[in-house]
UniProtKB/TrEMBL annotation:
PROSITE patterns: SAICAR_SYNTHETASE_1, SAICAR_SYNTHETASE_2. This is Phosphoribosylaminoimidazole-succinocarboxamide synthase. Its EC number is 6.3.2.6. One of its GO terms (molecular function) is ATP binding. The lineage of its organism: Bacteria, Pseudomonadati, Pseudomonadota, Gammaproteobacteria, Oceanospirillales. It comes from Larsenimonas rhizosphaerae. GO terms for biological process: 'de novo' IMP biosynthetic process; cobalamin biosynthetic process. Belongs to the SAICAR synthetase family. The gene is purC. Keywords: ATP-binding, Ligase, Nucleotide-binding, Purine biosynthesis.
Length: 237
């Protein structure tokens, strides 16, 4: 597959067109950022770790019947993915209270949430990804009611699969975000699933094993990502 021009460069990933109009190359970089880009660093091995982590998770989800854009690993830091028409909406599920939920509602961190919560956020860096609802998404044309319903259903199916996967490795899936797009008329999981976009805690000690280590200056960020990966069966060798 021929890698062509850069289509998009985000905070930690770049997207390239290819000689196949329906396929893109997703490149995971070592860049790491937090607080809307106010804190930025390069963390060695991060691109490789997140690329392999994402590939493993996407394969597990595909095995469970969840449509994803992931097709194959191309290199240590690159993957081939389907080209989706992305919905500018993030779907967030919370199994435990943490982060912005605690700040917004004044609840303590670590409460088990039954049932898990589901929230929508608009992907808009300039507006700091504001929370929205289904009515706003429909009114402004960000997604149709049918697309939103499918995205919600798929998000909770992901939750069922990944909660067990991580718990079997002694890890709590605290919360996460997913992004969806449309490929050949089908709502399909896009973007990535890595410790950059979710919270993962050791189930016994509640040690943070995700990007909060970077946000909070705890150190050992990539080591924590690799520890999570090893516990669920990912090889980084």
């Amino acid at each position: 597959m021929e890698k062509r021009e850069a289509l998009y460069a985000g905070k930690a990933k770049s997207v390239y067109t290819t000689d196949d109009p329906d396929r893109l190359i997703l490149e995971f970089r070592d860049d790491t950022s937090a607080f809307d880009g106010q804190k930025v660093e390069q963390l060695e091995r991060k691109g490789m770790v997140n690329n392999r982590f994402n590939a493993f998770i996407m394969d597990r989800l595909k095995e469970s019947g969840i449509p994803t854009h992931f097709e194959s690993l191309l290199s240590d830091t690159e993957s081939v993915v389907k080209r989706l028409d992305m919905l500018p909406v993030e779907c967030v599920v919370r199994n435990y209270s943490a982060g912005s939920l605690c700040r917004r509602l004044g609840v303590e961190e670590g409460l088990a949430l039954e049932p898990p919560t589901f929230e929508l956020f608009l992907k808009n860096d300039a507006q700091h990804d504001p929370m929205i609802n289904e009515s706003l998404a429909e009114t402004f044309g960000w997604a149709t009611p049918e697309q939103l319903q499918l995205a919600r259903e798929l998000t909770f199916r992901v939750n069922d699969v990944l909660k067990k996967l991580f718990l079997d490795g002694g890890i709590l899936l605290v919360d996460y975000k997913l992004e969806f797009g449309v490929f050949n008329g089908e709502v399909t999981l896009g973007d990535e699933f890595s410790p950059d976009g979710c919270r993962l805690w050791d189930s016994t000690s509640r040690e943070k094993l995700d990007k909060d280590r970077f946000r909070q200056g705890l150190g050992g960020v990539i080591e924590a990502y690799e520890e999570v990966g090893r516990r669920i069966g990912i090889s980084f060798d």
